[in-house]
Amino acid sequence: GIQVEQSPPDLILQEGANSTLRCNFSDSVNNLQWFHQNPWGQLINLFYIPSGTKQNGRLSATTVATERYSLLYISSSQTTDSGVYFCAVLNTGNQFYFGTGTSLTVIP
Amino acid sequence: EAGVAQSPRYKIIEKRQSVAFWCNPISGHATLYWYQQILGQGPKLLIQFQNNGVVDDSQLPKDRFSAERLKGVDSTLKIQPAKLEDSAVYLCASSLASWGEQFFGPGTRLTVL
Question: Distance (Å, rounded) from C-alpha B57 to C-alpha A94?
Fold first, then answer.
């Protein structure tokens, strides 16, 4: 199956700081999503982004499918941004694979 | 629009017992997925349905796990008999089509003692 690696695995930020999370994948994909898993375990959709750039408030994402990576930008981080961020990809066989996750802690 | 519903939210059982989880997807979503998420890991796909047919169950431990989606809407996932290593959160997700954006339910946290 496809390999999906995320970096960094852990990140601690001061409130107000900016950060970039990276997702690398080993093969062509039809679809890519970014999720935030909050401390209660709920997976919240952030972006559906097989290619290009999207922005939603303080968050934005860019996927460069030809180079097999995606980036999630968080600006002016808040304590409510804490949790685990996952990227997930749909390979050409329509199978969905989650990445290894980035655990983010934002301290006041 | 209502999201993906799952029940129960929590379940504690003894090893070798049976357990069942229920999922109701977003209305109109043809594709339904069951995932297992072990603590500290990303979700792992167990089974994918397209309407009431199985598309992919390659990672489902079929000796003890089973799932059905009889009328192409609700789905149940069963474990019989449970093992200690089945302790995890079981997540249900749905999408309009197999290549579409997935939406997740709140999950069922299973503890096997």
Answer: 13
